[in-house]
Amino acid sequence: MSWHQYPSYVPVAERRAKAAKQAAKMAKKGNPPSPVEITGRTIASTFWGKAWCKHLESFSDYSNRLPRGRTYVRNGSVIDLKIEPAKITALVMGSSLYKQTITITPIAAARWKTLKDSCSGRIDSLVELLQGRFSDAVMTVITHRDKGMFPLPSEIKMDCSCPDWAGLCKHLAAVLYGVGARLDSQPELLFTLRQADHSELITEAASAQAMPTGLTSDLDAASLADVFGIDINMGSDSVENPSQVAPEPKQPKPIKVKKNETPKTAKKPAKPPKSKARKTASNPKTKKPTVKHKTSPPKKF
Question: Which of 9, 61, 115, 294 has the fewest CB atoms inside 10 Å of its own CB, making it the most exposed?
Answer without folding.
Answer: 294
